[in-house]
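Aldo/keto reductase, Bacillus suaedaesalsae. Tokens?
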Amino acid sequence: MKSLTDTTTLHNGVKMPWFGLGVFKVQEGEEVVSSVKAAIKNGYRSIDTAAVYQNEEGVGQAIKEADVPREELFITTKVWNADQGYETTLQAFETSLSKLGLDYLDLYLIHWPVKGKYNDTWKALEKLYKDGKVRAIGVSNFQVHHLEDLLSHAEIKPMVNQVEYHPHLTQEELQAFCKKEGIQLEAWSPLKQGELLNEPTIVKIAKQHKKSPAQIILRWDLQNEVVTIPKSIKENRIIENASIFDFELSAMEMNEISSLNKNERIGPDPDNFNF
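Tokens:
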């Protein structure tokens, strides 16, 4: 991983950037348009949104205005819980595609494992994939038992599992399972919404490398072979977050950071989420 354009190869051969921009809680309109354009201008090629973020139109506008060939970009969105089920997922996909103003998606994810629905939702994703409307399909917030259930019904294995992942929630069992199954793990909320930026161990390592605590955490993600999509609306922070390809954490530093694990979430627990 030497640059922002470096990719991981998903199990179906599609190349996905290791690093991208997340737009959770970024306001529709000028805020999302300017942050996505700033990211693309500064070398980002992966943008992650979701139907429930209500900013797909702004992401689409930014893509259009950015003037980068579509095939160079990697665009992800997600089907929301209320739309899960076979037919409703197919409709939700078309709505998202239309809002984004795109002909196809690079990655489409099931946002949460809604019990009794996600297997039907997955069948819809398999259809979209077979029809060539999306280059890769995956899930988000799936625990090992959700994945085991899905795999027992699925025709096509998920290519990606996007989950909350950071030094306070290292998800080692889940990562080992995904690695065994050839499913790429991806981190949302990699900085724990800023809570980890004052963690003494991370601050100490940051000083040693003359980097910011955020850069240390994001580098730790990549060296753990986890795709990461930090969110920011400020151009200087968008640039800073991505300036992590000119140094490497030692094995000792990686272990120090991993040992901060508390199995502590900032977001909902997928097993106790009010779907």
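The chain has one domain: 7-194+226-231.
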